[in-house]
Amino acid sequence: MHFSLPTIAVLLFCGNVKSDLIYVASFSGNITTLSLTYDYFASTNPDSYYSLSVVDTFKTPPSLPAWITLNKHNNIIYLVDGVTTGNGTLTAYRTSSENGTSPPIQLDSVECLLDGAYAGFYANGKGLAVAHYISSALQTYDITASNGTMVPLETFTYTMSSPGPAGARQDAPHIHEARTDPLGQYLLAIDLGADKVRQYAIDMDSLLLDERPALNATPGSGPRHGVFTKDPILFPDGVSSYVFYLAAEIAGTITAYRVTYLPNRGGLQFDLLPNGTYSSLEPGTPKPYTGGKGITGELQVSPDGDFLIASNRRDKKFNGTATQYPPDGQSDSISTFRIRQDLAGKLDFVQSAPAGGYMPRTMNLNSAGNLAVVGIQEGNRVTVLERDLGSGLFKEQVAEVYVEGEIWGVLWDDYNDV
């Protein structure tokens, strides 16, 4: 439901109203700034209290804006380019004003390798690592300058002696994500093409990386993204350990590993948990035929650490109208699992909910965890779903808006009460 401008103006004077900005990167060549206005008491009647609207759209140096992320240490947005020919671009922006009336201010833009798929921070926000899919590479940058200048540091390029089991999807290494461990000691580069999670020890002063032994994932599974539990979990042997969940998009699975920190900065040891591989779809759901394309998309742990949430693509689990679920009346699913703190990180399936359209490539929770923004890649649409914090269940879709171009990145930027 969308409010008229006078109605929004009245609501903004109410003490219970909150307004958040959401940034959207799409293959239109634009970043679109959205404003979500809602009442703290929306849970009593959500459809009456949410308004999602486009505030601004602006062109970016990247011709195909892909992953977008915010460094909360310096309040700078970084945008990577998904272009697959010519030269790639990495751009830094100062965030918009709280009400989104002014666009982000470009601070720096540097040429980089092709097909940036992800950008992750390390060394307490001083370093930025960019995963390049087609270029089979990881690039790092020093981003300590207060004016947003990015200084290139290292480039790691990977090769394979022969293609992987998944054929064309694994014709070469394809880095899909770069993220740190919970203690910030190591950087992980998740390689879909080589079925590996490459890891590097971080030098906190120089920001340089030193390679450590990789985790070898299931051959042909195509690992895409990974997340750690918020806190260590007590295991039956009396030792508390983090658990790492690895989403494999080709296999459509999530695999759980116990994490051990080796002495002398020797790296992370990943031990597969017993019966620790799960379908990212609802149990009993046949894996859809995708012609080798990916199923599992985004993977996140809820802010309270109790739930693991995965977006699924191409499963077309829910049917509706073309208006309800553009473009063709079918919606893919979002799966929620409870992380069993009492059973060493075992996952219990909780719910399959409609994402709001076809191909939910990207998803981001707000800081409270009661709302999720979903980028519907093929539907040129952004949806907002409400979650119940206690049960972890998605309750309903409370807002949506059209955004030009295929949606490749969404970023929730929470602000204080209006």
Automatic annotation (TrEMBL):
Protein name (Swiss-Prot/TrEMBL): Putative isomerase YbhE
Signal sequence segment: 1-19
InterPro entries cross-referenced by the UniProt entry: Cycloisomerase_2, Haem_d1_sf, Lactonase_7-beta_prop, WD40/YVTN_repeat-like_dom_sf
Source taxon at top rank: Eukaryota
UniProt GO molecular function: 6-phosphogluconolactonase activity; isomerase activity
Lineage: Eukaryota, Fungi, Dikarya, Ascomycota, Pezizomycotina
Sequence similarity: Belongs to the cycloisomerase 2 family.
Keywords: Isomerase, Signal
A Pfam family: Lactonase
Xref: PANTHER family: 6-PHOSPHOGLUCONOLACTONASE, 6-PHOSPHOGLUCONOLACTONASE-RELATED
